[in-house]
Specification:
single chain, 41% helix, activator, 26% strand, WH-like_DNA-bd_sf, five-stranded antiparallel sheet, Arc Repressor Mutant, subunit A, Jelly Rolls, alpha+beta, four-stranded antiparallel sheet, 236 residues
Length: 236
Amino acid sequence: MKEHSCQHAAEPCTRKVPIFAALTDDDLTRISAMIKHRKYTKGQPLILEGAPSDTLHIIQQGHVKLSKMTPEGKEQILHILTNGDFFGELSIFNSDERSNFNAYALKDTNICMLTRKDMEQLMTDNPDISLRLLKSLTKRLAHTENLAQSLATKDPEIRIACMIMELSDKYGKRHGSRIHIDLPLSREELASYVGVTRETISRKFSRFEDSGLIKLIGNKQMVLMDPAGVERYMGS
């Protein structure tokens, strides 16, 4: 794992981050001088649950999963993050914060990091950043609440349909009426995300495929053949 400043990078990672979108070029250059940049390989942990946390992690390029271990010792995936997303914002607003999740690289991933001290100075100089952080935090909390409610109440097929649409929105590329999705998770991880076994998700995928809703290409690609059909499924 290498660490370096991205001040002299050809394209500073701050330009790719939505929370810094309203800043001037001079502000972005100043922030770039503060940022440390790390590279993680696929499967490598960025932070583990319970570890001290005083850093905002911003994904410059790659995919990261946030997860917790259930009391039964199973992984529950909470979020799948990609370019421009970030995590660790709670550590910016609270001192002595410890991570309440694990974060793992799903592929080779480049991360930009800002310490609490630097973020406090940035938010003092640019209050808009605080507002953007809070808006993002609110969306993430709402997602977690919806996930908990979904796991507790919804039929597994509906949960899987919701996950397909979420992956489509985040990772899909439209080709005519179809959407091609490069899946960021393995079958086992997809099953963990919706709270079912690997066998169950494979069986449900086969059912969706037989119904003409999706087409699977190996283990890492899915074609959403009938997006409207999957959305109707969600409402059933």
